[in-house]
Each structure stands twice: as structure tokens, then as C-alpha cells.
Design brief:
This protein is an alpha/beta fold. The chain has a single domain (7-237), classed as 3-Layer(aba) Sandwich (Rossmann fold), CATH 3.40.50. It contains eight helices and seven strands, in the order E-H-E-H-E-H-E-H-E-H-E-H-E-H-H. It has a seven-stranded parallel beta sheet with strand order 3-2-1-4-5-6-7, sandwiched between helices. Strand 2, helix 2 (39-47) and strand 3 (51-54) form a beta-alpha-beta unit. Helix 3 (60-70) runs parallel beside helix 4 (97-123). The chain is globular. The termini are far apart.
Length: 240
């Protein structure tokens, strides 16, 4: 897909992978509208010339407000990138169930609700794309973040089913599976991290080349391990 002139809604676009995606997409000539929750980051993106919508996607009210604000504008590409990582490790302390609920909604329910709410906008375009950003941990989980892994795995299966439903339409459905990326979300992760700029670049390539999946960085190796032995892949990631 040629990105020049395309209108894109990118959730979670004020930091990390999302910010890098916004910059790279704009460099390709796309009109990028981003969402986020942090007022300072949103203001910084506005100073860089982006339209930035404040949106809390951890609940239905926030998602519906975003859909309403979008209105009847055209939409060529929807990128469901926003996500939360919740600490849910009983080995350290009793987890906060409310934080888990927010994570589940933001990572899973919000992309589903946003996709449903904007589907007619996408169908109205000659060619459209939905990009769901999951994770290498959608393939095999890490023990310390079971809620995050569960949401990303669920979003992966939603993406697979949605792609099958839309295979004979004008809408392509892409899944991007990043490895551990050097973002604020992964500040406490001791693993080697991919630069957010490179992760965004590889997602961009998948969009331009109309690939169904973008297995990024170490996720490629994890996919190979999983194809050989699911238990091997699981044993690799559960240690982290």
C-alpha cells in the first residue's frame, strides 16, 4: 500500500513504538492522527504538527468518545497500537485486580470496539488496512506478566479470525508482533531491547508490502521455535 495521502488513526501514538510509527508514517506522506493519555506527551506531538486526541482506552466510554470525535472523516488505516503492561506477579505481592481490568480492556476490548465502531469508515475506502499490534508474547507467555500475555494472545486470535472474515473485502488485516522494545513500558525488563525506531520501521514495511504478519526481531526466532516445539517456545519465554 502506498502511504502518501492516506488518513491514519494510530492509538498510543505519543510515545514508544507509536510515536516512531507516527513520525515514519508522516515522512511517507500520510496524514496521521494519534491518540494518547499523557497531556504533556500529547502537547509535544501537537507541537510537532500532529493532530493528537486525548483518549482513555481502558474503558468503553473512552473508546466511544474517540469514535464520536472521529465523526465522518475518511479512514484508510487503523493501527491499534495502544497498550498497557500490568504488574501481575503473585511471587512479589498480591496484584491489583482493577489494574488488571484496565489492562484487559485497553489491550483487547478497546481494539475490538474501535474496529467495530470504525468498520464502515474502512469499508468506504477503495483499499483499507487494520493493523493490530500484539507481541511475541502472544506466541508464548512470560510468567511475570500473565495478564498482558493473555490479552495479546487473545488479540492475536481475534486478528486471525477477523482476517478470514474480511479476506474477500477491500480491508487487509495485519498483525505486528514486536519483541521486547526499548520503551517506557519495558524499563524494568532486563532482556535485550530493540530500538523503537527499528520496530516501527519493520511494521511500516509490512503495511507497505501488504504482509499479513510482521514478525519483528527475536519474534522470528520464537515463531520458528514454536513451529518446531510449542513446549520449547513456552519454556524459553516463561523464564522471563
Amino acid at each position: 500500500m502506498k502511504l502518501d495521502g492516506k488518513t491514519i488513526l494510530l492509538t498510543g501514538g505519543s510515545a514508544g513504538i507509536g510515536k516512531e510509527l507516527a513520525l515514519q508514517l508522516r515522512a511517507k506522506g500520510a496524514e496521521v492522527v494519534i491518540t494518547g493519555r499523557n497531556p504533556e506527551r500529547l502537547a509535544a506531538m501537537r507541537e510537532e504538527g500532529f493532530e493528537a486526541i486525548a483518549a482513555d482506552l481502558s474503558n468503553a466510554t473512552g473508546v466511544d468518545a474517540l469514535i464520536a470525535e472521529w465523526g465522518q472523516r475518511p479512514l484508510d488505516i487503523l493501527i491499534n497500537n495502544a497498550g498497557q503492561l500490568v504488574d501481575h506477579d503473585f511471587r512479589k505481592a498480591a496484584p491489583d485486580p482493577d489494574a488488571a481490568d484496565d489492562c484487559i480492556y485497553a489491550n483487547l476490548n478497546a481494539p475490538i470496539r474501535l474496529t467495530a465502531g470504525l468498520m464502515e469508515h474502512l469499508k468506504a475506502r477503495p483499499k483499507a488496512t487494520i493493523v493490530n499490534v500484539t507481541s511475541g508474547l502472544a506466541i508464548a507467555p512470560a510468567a511475570r506478566t500473565p495478564v498482558y500475555c493473555a490479552t495479546k494472545s487473545a488479540l492475536r486470535f481475534y486478528t486471525l479470525g477477523l482476517r478470514e472474515q474480511l479476506k474477500d473485502t477491500n480491508i487487509q488485516v495485519i498483525e505486528a508482533l514486536p519483541p521486547v522494545v526499548d520503551t517506557q513500558m519495558n524499563d524494568g525488563n532486563p532482556m535485550k531491547k530493540m530500538p523503537a525506531e527499528e520496530c516501527a520501521r519493520q511494521i511500516l514495511v509490512a503495511i507497505e508490502k501488504c504482509r499479513d504478519e510482521a514478525n519483528i526481531g527475536m519474534t522470528k526466532a520464537l515463531r520458528i521455535a514454536e513451529s518446531i516445539s510449542p513446549s520449547l517456545a513456552k519454556n524459553i519465554t516463561l523464564r522471563f
